[in-house]
Design goal:
With 206 residues, this protein is an alpha/beta fold. It folds into 2 domains: 4-97, Rossmann fold (3-Layer(aba) Sandwich), CATH 3.40.50; 104-198, Arc Repressor Mutant, subunit A (Orthogonal Bundle). The protein has 7 helices and 12 strands. The chain is elongated.
Length: 206
């Protein structure tokens, strides 16, 4: 899923370019994954809810930066800043804030041990490439949910903007074949036309 950013700082350039790089800008009343703050005082308002990157004043010094970190900010970027560097800092903070996946993922007959990268279908072990494995883990976190192609390209391949590519489709096709062969013909990796993919069309009853 594309990250939702709360832009507390008044930055017309960021308002224009961040959506082009795949971020969603939300209002203070919405759900957000990270805050771009324009003032140290914003740290107190938002640090309990999401990671905060302070975009500091041009005249700020080391004392201001230390003060911001002590208040709980996750990064500090002084003005003037390089836009691409800021984007990379946003990605770095989001990676650190992302919760670790559970050690064991189970979806129907699919079982993934993320400690050993062992993948089994109905008890039969299958061998996956690096990206096939990452795609399967992403889908298995919410096996009945339809992930958009944009979400999967962002999470697995780190594509930051919409792209015309067959990469996802080709990997999904190979992964579907391997899962089907190991699962005696069971259906996996459903392509929801015009939207994206999900691992299981219907979860089996417990």
């Amino acid at each position: 899923m594309s990250a939702a950013l709360l832009l507390a700082a008044s930055e017309p350039e960021l308002e224009r370019h961040l959506p082009e790089d795949g971020f969603r800008l939300v209002s203070p009343g919405g759900r957000f994954d990270l805050v771009l703050a324009g003032d140290i005082d914003d740290v107190d308002r938002f640090a309990q809810h999401a990671p905060v990157i302070v975009i500091g004043r041009a005249e700020a010094d080391a004392v201001d930066r230390v003060h911001a970190f002590r208040k709980g900010c996750d990064d500090y970027v002084p003005r003037p800043f390089d836009y691409q560097e800021l984007v990379e800092r946003i990605h770095a903070v989001l990676r650190r804030a992302r919760p670790a996946p559970p050690e064991l993922l189970e979806a129907g007959p699919v079982r993934i041990d993320t400690r050993t990268r062992d993948v089994r279908v109905s008890g039969r072990r299958i061998h996956l490439s690096q990206k096939e494995y990452e795609l399967l883990v992403q889908l298995a976190r919410e096996p009945a949910r339809v992930f958009t192609k944009e979400e999967l390209l962002y999470e697995v391949w780190e594509y930051r903007a919409p792209a015309r590519t067959r990469t996802l489709d080709s990997h999904a096709s190979r992964l579907r074949r391997k899962l089907r062969e190991a699962g005696s013909g069971e259906a996996f990796i459903e392509n929801v036309w015009g939207v994206g993919y999900r691992l299981l069309g219907e979860l089996p009853e417990m």
